[in-house]
Design brief:
The protein has about 110 residues and is an all-alpha fold. Helix content is about 60%, strand content about 0%. The longest helix has 19 residues, at about 25-45.
Length: about 110
């Protein structure tokens, strides 16, 4: 029983460490929100309601895993206009942006 509890604790800590987001400072958050509205909004629409790219509203993203969204932003979508953003954004930046979209950006 003791070994089982230890394994559960270690697994939980690993999950927390691999999914945690280093929250950008306020200046970086403003830069990332600007990028989201200008660069992402150019294809996904000013209000993320779709355009060349699909809708990125909270409702449209419901049921999609955070990990798959992070992978899409990181690596893009081959055969589409969606580029990978890893040359310009850190993994923490990308996770923060995905979390912002999942929470409902832009706020109504």
């Amino acid at each position: 029983m003791k070994v089982y509890r230890h394994a559960v604790m270690v697994t939980t800590l690993l999950l927390i460490c691999t999914t945690a987001v280093a929250i950008p400072d306020p200046k970086r958050q403003a830069q990332l929100e600007h990028l989201l509205s200008q660069d992402c909004g150019a294809c996904h629409g000013l209000h993320m309601t779709g355009g060349l790219g699909p809708e990125l509203t909270r409702a449209a993203l419901a049921g999609k895993s955070r990990e798959s969204l992070v992978a899409t932003v990181s690596h893009g979508r081959p055969g589409t206009a969606m580029p990978g953003w890893t040359p310009l954004l850190s993994p923490d930046d990308i996770r923060w942006l995905v979390d912002l979209l999942l929470q409902g950006y832009p706020a109504p």
